[in-house]
Amino acid sequence: MGTGCSTGLSAPWSNSYPLKILLVGKQSSGKTFLLYSWKYGIDTIMSVEPTKHFNVDTITTASERKILVYDLAGNIGYRLRPFLDGTEGVVYMIHVGEPGDSIFKEEEESIKQLILERDLESTPFLFVIRGDPESSKGVSQDLTERLQATLEGKQWDIMCLQDYSQEDADLVLQVLEKMLSRRT
């Protein structure tokens, strides 16, 4: 009984069903640029305007996996809740501008709140730190130390990117896809 209901439907873990990803971080951290790099290629991007609300686009990975990416404006704040349901991965962008930059206390609290959201309980997190190589390493270590207890038991990873090249964008997508494949 019930097998007739499933005929012709695609399971949520099949390759034809796109995985929902949130692309979040502070304003001007590079979220939209990363999304456009995945979708159109870095060579076609002339300029990127700051996102006012959100962008949604479906991308297809090299292995033909479809991912529905919600690029949320940096100041989304309390309006984040409607986007959480059904999220299967989070990419959190952090921009480090100057040597010696660190994660500000308010960003640390925002990250912790996001990690602890009940709708994201078993959701993998990929932190992408871009900017000065020396500062990025420091922020990566700082992030790991500050969030260790909050991230315990979760699937997560940190990547440091020096610039925006197609290779860097593709690498982020490969790591994300690998994380998602462990989950499904």
Structure description:
The protein is α/β, with parallel strands linked by helices and 184 residues long. The protein has a single domain (15-183), classed as Rossmann fold, CATH 3.40.50.300. 36% of the residues lie in helices and 23% in strands. The chain has 6 helices and 6 strands, in the order H-E-H-E-E-H-E-H-E-H-E-H. The protein has helices at 3-6, 31-40, 81-84, 105-115, 133-151, 166-183; strands at residues 19-25, 54-60, 66-72, 89-96, 125-131, 156-161. A 6-stranded mixed sheet has the order 2-3-1-4-5-6, sandwiched between helices. A hairpin with a 5-residue loop joins strand 2 and strand 3. The chain is globular. It starts with a helix and ends with a helix. Residues 1-13 have low confidence and may be disordered. Pfam families: Arf. One of its GO terms (molecular function) is GTP binding. Mg(2+) binds at residues 32, 51.
Task: Give a summary of the structure in a few sentences.
This protein is of the alpha/beta class. It has helices at residues 3-6, 31-40, 81-84, 105-115, 133-151, 166-183; strands spanning 19-25, 54-60, 66-72, 89-96, 125-131, 156-161.
